[in-house]
Specification:
The protein is built from 4 helices and no strands. The chain is mainly alpha-helical and 98 residues long.
Length: 98
């Protein structure tokens, strides 16, 4: 059994449905498609947690994770802007030297 096979998210969802809706054993599904039963169980678990967003694909994030990443970046940017403004205020608040 090869552990390097790549499957589309739709295909994984169909395999999960074989287990969850039709009652097939993960080991049976795994044997049919040539993966380990552990992989099929992991797909079932991921689908149970994340539903349709369980398999976003390589290099992609689930929508909730992408939103969190965007918010973290925005927060970091705002903190940097705030630090710059504080430094500018300190500079302009200092009385000029004569």
């Amino acid at each position: 059994m090869s552990t390097n096979k790549k499957f589309a998210d739709d295909y994984k969802q169909e395999m999960v449905k074989l287990v969850t809706e039709l009652g097939k054993k993960p080991s049976e599904v795994a044997k049919d498609i040539g993966v380990t039963p552990v992989s099929v169980r992991r797909w079932v678990r991921q689908y149970g947690i994340h539903g349709q967003d369980a398999f976003p694909g390589k290099g992609k994030l689930r929508p909730a994770d992408a939103e969190l990443k965007a918010l973290e970046k925005e927060n970091k940017d705002l903190k940097e802007e705030n630090a710059i403004l504080k430094k500018a205020m300190a500079i302009f608040a200092t009385p000029p030297r004569k």
